Amino acid sequence: MFDITSILGDALSEISIVDIGAMDVGGDTSFQSLLDRGLAHLVGFEPIEEECEKLNQQSADHLTYLPNFVGDGKVHPFYITQAAMSSSLYEPNLPLLGHFQHLEEYMRVVQTAQVQTRRLDEISEVGDVDLLKVDVDGAELDVFRGASRVLKDTLVVQTEVHFVPLYKQAPLFADVDSHLREQGFLFHQFEGHAGRAFKPLMLSNQPYRGFGQWLWADAVYVKSFESFGELAAEKLLNLAVILHEVYRSYDMAALALQHYDALTGCNIQQIYLNRLAGGDTAAA
């Protein structure tokens, strides 16, 4: 698909991304292309200090990583697990995990520490956010409850959600969904999902693959399309770029451009539609 920025010219401003739970677990993030092309800057949070140091070794001007525990602003135990990426402010639910291949061993607690969390709204390095990504192993709702100011101007949220209680007393998909809808977002799509096989079965002798049971996924939420008319022109362009380049949501990107044209008197949506159809880029 074509690069949407080729039809936007100088009107596009830098996109602001906040990444909570930014540990490098291999592979590119969904928004990596925006960073690689200089279209965005990122403030990331990774509370495990050695992992945060690895991220900061990238030394890129448009990347900043901070070792904060983002949550509800209170002190909590932090459960460090055998696999660092599954460490959480919630205790792993080992009796449930034991039903599945290679989860109980993976998420077994090896150390616990008391940590001070910070509300996202109170962190000065976080300003106006366009894309908010949250992956904190069960504590996502705590992040959102401490981010009402940030969420007010955020355009897109990508968050990990759980469908079964992998962590004790941790909120599930329905809880996160309800809160984000209260904050003016609508569910848009799932960006990948994962599961494990129930013991003793194993799919193709691969312990990390599942059959039918979904355990977690990344859920993408977009500011309600019924409120696009309330967004500033700059935010509408940023939204169109995110939808087009990151999530391949070409129809919703076109809707954002329609509202942009209504505000500015431009004709960007028609140019965009022509490009989607493989036609001329000139305005009709």
Automatic annotation (TrEMBL):
One GO term (biological process): methylation
Enzyme Commission number(s) from the entry: 2.1.1.-
InterPro entries to which the protein is assigned, alphabetical: FkbM_Methyltransferase, FkbM_mtfrase, SAM-dependent_MTases_sf
Origin organism lineage: Bacteria, Pseudomonadati, Planctomycetota, Planctomycetia, Planctomycetales
Pfam families noted in UniProt: Methyltransf_21 (PF05050)
Protein's name in the database: 2-O-methyltransferase NoeI
SUPFAM superfamilies to which the protein is assigned, alphabetical: S-adenosyl-L-methionine-dependent methyltransferases (SSF53335)
Residues of the Methyltransferase FkbM domain: 19-186
A GO molecular-function descriptor: O-methyltransferase activity
Domain of life: Bacteria
Keywords, ordered alphabetically: Methyltransferase, Transferase
